Amino acid sequence: MTLALDFISPTPASAPDRVTLFVDVILPLPLPRLYTYRVPFELNDNVVIGGRVIVQFGAKKTLSCIVAAVHETPPANYQAKYILEFIDDAPVVTQPQLKLFRWMADYYLCTLGEVINAALPAALKLSSESRIQLHPGFAREDNEYPLTPQEGIIVDALGTVSDGKALTFTEVGDLLGIASFHKVIKSLMHKDVIFLFEHTADKYAPKVLKKVRLAHRYVSAGALEELFNVLGSKPKQLDALLHYLQRVPVVQNEHANHAGLEKAALTSSPRLSASAVNTLIKNGVLEQFDQIVSRFPMDDGTATQPNFDLTAAQLAARDEIMTHFGARDIALLHGVTGSGKTEIYIDLIQQALAGGGQVLYLLPEIALTAQIVTRLLRVFGARLGVYHSKFSDNERVEVWNGVLGGRFQVVVGVRSAVFLPFDNLALIIVDEEHESSYKQYDPAPRYNAREVALMMGSFQGAKVLLGSATPAVETYYQARQGRYGLVTLSKRFGEAGMPDVELVDTRKAREQKTMHNHFSAELLGEIERKLGAQEQVILFQNRRGYSPVVACDDCGWIPKCANCAVSLSYHKHSHELRCHYCGYHESMVVKCPACGSRAVKTVGFGTEKIEDDLKIMLPQANVQRMDLDTTRAKNSYQQIISDFEKQNTNVLVGTQMVTKGLDFANVSLVGIINADSIIHYPDFRAHERAYQMFVQVSGRAGRKGKKGKVLIQTADPTQVIFDKVMRNDYEEFYNYEITQRHEHGYPPFTRIIKMTVKHVEQGVGEKAAILLAQELVERLGAGAVLGPEAPYIFRIRNFFLQEITIKLERAHTVLRHAKEQIGAAMDVVRDQKEFKQARLVADVDPM
Fold this sequence. Notes:
Layout: E1 22-26, E2 35-38, E3 52-57, E4 61-71, E5 85-86, H1 95-107, H2 112-119, E6 131-134, H3 149-158, E7 166-168, H4 169-176, H5 182-190, E8 194-197, E9 207-214, H6 221-230, H7 235-247, H8 254-259, E10 261-262, H9 264-267, H10 274-282, E11 286-293, H11 312-327, E12 330-335, H12 341-354, E13 358-362, H13 366-380, E14 384-387, H14 393-404, E15 410-413, E16 425-431, H15 449-460, E17 463-468, H16 473-480, E18 485-489, E19 500-505, H17 506-511, H18 521-532, E20 536-540, E21 549-552, E22 569-571, E23 576-578, E24 585-587, E25 600-603, H19 607-617, E26 623-626, H20 636-645, E27 651-654, E28 667-672, H21 676-679, H22 686-698, E29 709-714, H23 720-726, H24 730-744, E30 751-759, H25 762-780, E31 785-789, E32 795-796, E33 799-808, H26 812-830, E34 839-844
Parallel strand pairs: 12-17, 12-18, 13-15, 13-16, 14-15, 16-17, 19-29, 20-27, 20-28, 26-27, 28-29
Antiparallel strand pairs: 1-2, 1-4, 3-4, 3-5, 6-7, 6-8, 9-10, 9-11, 21-25, 22-23, 23-24, 30-33, 30-34, 31-33, 32-33
Helix pairs in contact: 1-2, 1-15, 7-10, 11-12, 22-23, 25-26
């Protein structure tokens, strides 16, 4: 469908006081600049910066975009098209957001359109292929708002709710036979007749409670008495009715009866008959109805203000943080695992809210929100919002609007929560600030939420508190230099002490033949002892799947991904081989396709094999696994954590997810199955990551008074890093690491930008990378440019990769100049006809 551009007749030029307005808009596309559109004269008063408008882009595409500026200057190089429709009469993107988004585009070498595309929930981004569907709560006969003829046509075309039909915007335009139909859609949305979604898979399914209530004709003492007489010979129905009346005082409070009772409260009761309840509904004694409720538990939560008192150490840390905030805007809380950082966060949030400000509480993993939200809900009730990637698009819009409208003063979220429309931030907390999960890798913007949070604080005058037991080296360096305040908690909360850490030499164990599959006798025996004492165990293995490699014993053949330069991992549950980079999968082979041998074996082990082996060796244990494969479903994190908290699970096997801030009272043993695979990695941050991971997962043990124990299995116990982990000596680790960084010119003493050239043809990609490197050397100097070279995994998703590393001095002027030169060098490559299909990716501050 092509939307006509002349559907609004321009006001005659002779009209008095006519002002022709133009708007610069941000399209959710990777475009290098903003586009200017003309505002129809009669809609001049509708223009709002930060609001959405519908425009035509190209020959046929229609898109919603954000108004970034309003002015009276027409574009110099093209004829401005008219805006087709105004969607909002108030901003959906605030001025502080626009300022932050511009900074992100500039700093992370991407376009403003890419930032907007990442920031806005899909339901706020409309296009000609957006879809509409009847709201599940809509019933035409009960709708309180009358429908216009055009609205009626759309509703008729959608049928009934049970039909589940959907229409694209293109189909709506064709159906109504008009170009300007967005007002009709907007009106239907306001009347709760329809909702929007981007893809069929995103169809909105609201949370619906099935409820029952007593029919109105029985809501009196006399009518009830007659009903009892009628049901006297039907004891099961009478029991169900009496149970309802015990829960709902219908005579004393007719409003309570109107609100009704969840049907499950009757049908799930073991002493009531579900069929009797259904018979009462069928005979008109009870009425069944659906009630749409919010998905957010905090909407129904009442703040109970739990009475917890900060310890003397926590009070001292809190006061020290406030003192630092008096002199600077950023502070680092360096507290050992289990030191009670969360209670300090809660106290600071309460103070920020008392001053009338908003608070953003960032966490690195969705898994953490399940525990933290439960604690914060008791304190902040309905003022608390949650935002993460497992939410459906419509849920994200609900939180977005809740922040915009002031409904949520506190938001707990993962990295994408930095995009929310805050305009009065008083405090930002970045918990576990060292975590690489805060870094977005693909697509653009490739931002780090920690750095964005620091800039948000700067733009909005908010204080920023970074918290970690193992701070990032760069963060601790800034604190030691006095740029950030530094507060230390060196002891655990209450009576809990730090766990004992022991090393198990797996090379020696194999020589002595005391290994059981991948478990040393020490680890297996300790697990059995803890289970016998009714205590829980966490086992960490930093690789998912059953086996990372499958190989033929006779000829050495190894199955490889069709799209990437990696071997396929075996997943036993689905009995298939999978690529962990692109998702390619195929059935597990029985016979080697190269030599025909049946000697196809699995090599190595992942979390799935650890779980499988434990269930065989310890059949009395209830073992559960937490990794990417078991947490794909929306509420799977919460379920796994809930089962472990309730001690329905004895042993939790997991990848990095189990290392990040989880708090379990009954865990007394942590086992690290294969420490060596984490240490030996070709990256300057490998030792830092290994130290953080070991210390963090060790910190899950012995948090509530029980003495914890950590067993680390390694084939090389002499590694220097283990000594620092065993003594929990962050200062010594930092001093060693910062010396290495200084000697070799790595952050925080330099800034790094990694350039990646991608192409489907290896030779063309290499030539493009060589040209880019030459251009960069010419502009930045040979000492600043390393490469190009193929990375260890040189092909992903059918693209061959070449990488160039750029090292720069820390000065902002140097960085600004370098980015201009990088952009110019990229333009030179893109202008070559041979390299038109090459993808050039810039990653600022790669992790």
